[in-house]
Every structure is written in structure tokens, then in C-alpha cells.
Amino acid sequence: MGYQEFWLPYREEVKERFPLVAGRLKQIGAEETVAVCWREYFRRTAAFLSRLIEVEEEIYEASKAAQPERDGACGRELFTGAAQKSMERLQMENHALYEDILPENYGESYANPAYAAAKLGEGMGRLLCMLYADLRSLIPYAYEGRSYELTIFGELFIEIYNCFEQEEHPKEQEIQQVIYWFYHDYSEVFTEISVLAQSSPQLDFHLRIIMDSDLSDLRYLYRYGAYISQNEIKVAKFLNRMPQQEIQAMADTYTEGYRIGFEVTGKDLSKKRFVDLRYPIGFERMMRAAVNNFRKMGLLPVVSRIGETSFSGRVNGSCAVSGVSPNRQYDYDHKHDRAVYFDKAFVERKLEGLRTAYEGRGEAAALYAGPAVVETFGEEGFAPAACPWACQFDGRQQKLNVYAMGQSSQITNRHIKGEERSFTIIAYPIPEIGERFEEIFAKTVEVNTLDYKLYQKMQQNIIDVLDEGAFVHVAGKGANTTDITVALHALEEPHKQTNFENCVADVNIPVGEVFTSPMLKGTNGRLHVTEVYLNGMKYLDLKLDFKDGMVVGYSCRNFTTKEENVTFLKENLLKHHDTLPLGEFAIGTNTTAYKMGKDFQIQDKLPILIAEKTGPHFAVGDTCYSWAEDTPVFNPDGKEIVARDNEISILRKEDAQKAYYNCHTDITIPYDELGRITVIRHDKSQADIIRDGRFVVPGTEPLNEPLL
After folding, report:
1. pLDDT digits over 441-497, tens only?
2. Separation of alpha carbons 501 and 514, rounded Å
3. Domain range holding 264?
4. Assigned domain for 700 exists
5. Do residue 182 and residue 205 come from a single domain?
6. Is 521 helix (H, G, I), strand (E, B) or coil?
């Protein structure tokens, strides 16, 4: 079964409804049956949906012409007709679909909660703005030829429009209920599709772009339906100029990291069949080489369809295959749109749908090996602005969201066991990073391919000293007021046990850290970073206070009032939890990456993946071994890493809901803000690992060379 056949039942289900929706949308543009105050919103939105339907029909007809013998073809021969379109025409069409939310236009867009509230009223504006954002999320679906989603969302819009055609204006509660029952009723379908995508190689829309396109003809970029900026175009051009040998080396680093991740953790990759590709648009040439590598390993590449609608929990525009966001403020404003329909009944129905979907997949779900991720970095820093008119979770919904995430993780882990899956992540810069992009790219490739054997030896020297300790004390210097003591697990058999994992270039590329899951009791003090970017957002003067390993206080200076800062941190760092444990303490050793950041003045643009290797870092949330704590892990010297649990994660033996927070955020102190990292032994004697930002353990001298 191919891509077309997979979607055929869905297409057949709406075969008669689809043209009715298309016709009704066109009529709305000429009608005057709703009050003037609502009319512009409905006309604009109807016109937008009509354009998406035109795109889908154009693709559908082109695919049928390419494969006339296959009735119901949709999307696989996407853009057969694009060969007749110029690059300029495709750019114009792409811009037209996204121009409404571009920063220069966002101030007068119904996707902007502030504008919607001003034009439509605060309550109704919030609902209709949320609806508009979900309808905008359908753009990639149109390019995939998915008439099913276009039909049902079109019907939702028309139903709401009908409410406004009545003589008496509808109440907010009426519109909220229409939206609520839509998501309630379709939750099983949305969940089923997302689960199927993890182990259905016939959902090969993105794979066909990678493998079948003429990558020298950059018109292929517009097949995705995503916003295409100069970043994607310039990256694709740059990779096209690279020798195949260098492209292959990049792919090899990526896929070998994935393979080694299974090897070093003692997991059997031969039991798996599906590898989940997640990559940025523009990197198709590298991904083509990677797909061939994975196939040689016996793995079939899939692309999990992480939906962009509110149903999937839209967070910062996250999706499996993406370009640079057209507007990160838009993404931020709509991250909690689910609040419109998020209640206990909805959550339980969604969870039941997840159980049913996984049970229906049987053995196929267990063959999922995990994601192989390519990230990018280099975008201008983003400091979000608070928008009081945007949808927000109330206190009850925050707790419910925590519950839903925990239950979803448990269900998933029963079918795709954490102790049997792995992942890898690697990152590269994009042109937005500056004029020296090509130099930075070359340096990043160097950083990603450092001699892991050399680092393995130096890191073992550090671990040998750390394993003598009962505590580790970390102190900042200058403006950095960090002063925290981390408690370590007791090693009952030091000759064959260790607290710290010797992490080289496998799941987290590049090389360069030793890490542990600390004991919570006895872990006390303050973590402070003057400026840091976490998940693409800027945090100023971030301070976290810990008592027995739990966050007891937090602050930053992003906003003018304490209340705004606390709300910002609770939403984005604590993920709506009242507190989080210290899930990881690590010492980054990749001073080459640190020097790269300093030399090119891009420290603020390095992703967590690289930044965490450029100094000591602390992660709030789950441990590094969540859902796989009972799987033995060994360092290259043969010692078992025993620090896989803490006092919170061990509660999984009683109730997994108490053990996992379903988040893990690394916060790094740069070397130039670091005073000391000191091991405190059981007899109270001390030994420094780092002093005044320099490594002092014998055998680690090469780590200081980039810092000179």
C-alpha cells in the first residue's frame, strides 16, 4: 500500500462533502448575512480556506494525471504541474499563504489575539483567533493532498459561521461548545493518524521529496507547503555546492551516532524496523545520504506526523519537518489554544483513543526505534511578549495537562518501551546566523566530528576524581551568583560502579560531557545564569533556588513585573508544574565548541545540544534515564553507571504518575561565568575539577587549549 492508498478511505469518507464545503466557502465571500462587525473576519477566513482547497485540488488533479491508472491518487506525485511554474511564481504563492502572520503584518491579523480582541471583542476574539490559527495550520495538509482534514475543518468553520447568521448574536459559550465537540468527536481520528505515522512507511510524502526530487532544482522546497525563507533556500544551495564526500561524512556522523546510541546502552537495534526522521527543510541532500545509510542498517525511514493544530499541543511551531518559523511571536501566542476545549472528558477520550490506536498497531508499534533529529541554530534571539488576550490554561487545566502528559507517556511506553528505543540529535547553523555562515558551518562540522576517543580518555580522568566525592560544589564568578552543592550517590563497589556517564558522540552529538542523576536530598543552593536561550526563548538573569533537589524559588528579568516573570517561567521552564527536581548535573568538556561561540560571537545562538557541552549544566525535570532506569548502562571502562534514579523517579515502582514530569531542560553556565567546580570527598577533603574556568585534573590539559 502506498501513500495514496493509505489516505483513500479518508478521502472516500468525505468524497461528497468536500465539494459542498468548497462551494459554501466561496458563497460566504459575497454574502451579507452576518453583522458588519463579524463580516471581515469570516470573509477573510473563507477566502483563505478556499485557497487551500484550490491548492489541494491542483495537486490532486496533477497526481491523477501522472498516475491515471490509480484512482484516488493524492499527493505522491506532488507538484507534477509545478514544472510549469517558475521559482518566482512559487515564491509568490508561498508568501501569499503566510503573509498574514509575518511580523510586518501581524499587527492587523486575525491570528493576533490582541487584534482579534480589539475587532471582535475580548471573549469572542479569543475564540475566533484560536479557530483561525488552527485553520492556518492546514496549509501543509493541502500540499499533502489531505482533503479529509480540509473538509472537516471547513465544516467546523461553516457551522460557526451559521451561528453568526442568526438574528441574535451567538453567545461565547455556544461557539466554545461547537469547537469543543469538534475536537472531542474527532480526537480518535487525529490520534490514530499520529500513531500510524510512527510505523507506516507508506506515509512517505516527505521521504519522496527527499529521494525523488531533483535537488538541484530548488523548486522542490515548495512541495512541503511550509513557509520557505531565505534560510531554507540558501542552505539548499550551500549543500548543493558541497562535494558528495563531505555530504556523506555529515550523514555518516548522524546515522552512526544513532547506531552507537543503541550499542553503548546495550539495546538491540536488530529488533527494530522504523527510524523516525526529523529534519529542517533545506537539508534534503544530507538526508538522502542518511536514508541510504539507515536502509543499510535494516531500518525503514518514517516521518511521524506531528500535527501543527492545537490538538497536538502546538508549542513554538514544533513539527517533524519544518523551516524557520514565519513569526515566533505567533507561535508563542497560540501555544495554549487547547485551553478552549481542554477538560477532563476531552483528555480521557484522547487517552482512550491513544490506547486503542496503539493496541491496533500490535507488533508494528514495538518496531519503532526512535527519532533521529537534525536541528538548526542561528536565528535571531526571541524574547516573547506577553499577550493577555491569548488563550491560557487556568490552574485546573495546568494540572490536567500534567496528568495528560504523564498518562500519554505511560501508554506510549507500554507499546514502545523506553529501554528498547534510542535517538540521536545533531545540529547545524542556518544562514541567518550571519555573514560568516559558511565558516561557522564548517566549524560546526569539525565540532561534530571531534576525536571521541581522545575525549573519552580525558573525561574518564574527570570521572575518576568525581567518583571520589560525596558532593560537588559549583560556584560562579563575577556577576554570576551560582552557589550550589550537588549530592552524589554512594558507590557501594567503586571498583565496578560509577556515578557519571562518559558521554561521547552518540545520541547527543557533539562529543563532550560527563553527567549524572544526582541525589535530591542534600542538593541545595542557587543556579544563576545572566543570559541563556532555552528552546529558542531568551531568559534574562535566570535564578533557580533548590532545597533537597527541588525548585523552591525562581525568577528572571524578562518582564517588568514579578508576576509576569513568574508566569513566564512556570509556563515555559517548569511546564506548569509547581516544582521540578534537579534531574541532571553535568560537566561539559567541549571547549572547542565554546571557542567557536566566542570567536564568531554566536554564544547566544548555540542550541542547547551544543551549549550544554560548553560548561557545567543542570537539567530540571526528569533524569536522563527516564523510562529506562532499570536498563544497565556501562561506561567504556566497564563500570556500571548506578546513578540512574533519584528519589522522585524511583516512585515509578509505586505510581508512574508520581515519578515523571515529562520535561527535561538543560541550563548551562558558560566557562567565563564559572569560578570553581569542586569535589567534596567523604572525609571533607576537596579536589577541583575546574578552577577559574580552566580544567585542572591531570590529563585534561588539551581541554584548556581552546580557552587560551
Report:
1. 999 999 999 988 899 999 999 999 999 999 999 999 999 999 999 999 999 999 999
2. 5
3. 199-426
4. yes
5. no
6. strand
